[in-house]
Amino acid sequence: MKRITLTIMIVCCALAMVAQDAFLVKYKGAKPNIRDFARAYIDHMCTPCDDEEEDECCREGLSLFENLEEAIQNQDKGLPLDENETLTIDVKNGYLLYEIRRDDSDLLSRLEMCYWNEPDGKHKLFAINRWSYSDGKPLLGQYDAFIFYRYDNAKKRMEGCDPPGFDMEYMNKSYALPRKGKDIVVTTWNENGTKTQQTLKWNGKRFSY
User: Fold this and answer.
1) pLDDT of residue 170
2) What is the pTM of this model?
């Protein structure tokens, strides 16, 4: 029962984050890249919610994005990151990975972002995947979430959307976004300590197994 309740809390917090429905993406040049999307999302997360209860949930889960923002700024300035964090921004492949280990413990926070070009040439699908790990195994962290947005090229605007083509599962699943290729790897962590993997394949509009 406690695990089910925690799952409901996680989903509610994720929905609260998406409930701040839309935000603009500012960029220079002909088109935005993953760095622009990341900065726009961080700014979006720092905007208070209209609802006080939702805002408290958002603010409590904000520290990881503040850490990411500082890491991006340091990387842009050529400054070293803290020993307990790593940051990869692959503009060519539209992928970002930020990891930070808390207080010399085995708790690792992992944040991925990436996007997919849609075949109409007018939209992009953007994903944020946040997961916590302990001893290499995923935890059901309070602020862990896998969230999707759809970007309109003409409006330069992101809007929250449902996972295209599949239902999110939090109880015993973790997800890995693609740095290369277009597919999402889903890992199922079994009670006997083993794990199995499946691939959500991208067909240009949605994912399917």
Assistant:
1) 84
2) 0.86
Secondary structure (H, E, C), 57-123: HHHHCCHHHHHHHHHHHHHHCCCCCCCCEEEEEECCCCEEEEEEECCCCCEEEEEEEEEEECCCCCE
H/E element, 138: strand 137-139
Chain mean position to CA 29: 25
The CA distance from 137 to 146, in Å, is 17
Per-residue pLDDT tens over the stretch 23-36: 999 999 999 999 99
If you average pLDDT over residues 160-178, what whole number do you get? Answer: 93
| 189 strand-pairing partners | 195
Average pLDDT, the chain: 86
Which are the contacts of 159, defined by CB distance < 8 A and separation ≥ 6?
21, 22, 149, 150, 152
Contact by Cβ (8 Å): 111, 127? no
DSSP single-letter state for residue 180: S
For residues 26 and 17, give the distance between their C-alpha atoms in angstroms, rounded to a whole number. Answer: 20
Burial of 43 (0-12, 13-18, 19+ CB in 10 A): middle
Taking only the tens place, the pLDDT of each residue in 127-167 is 999 999 998 899 878 889 999 999 999 999 999 999 999 99
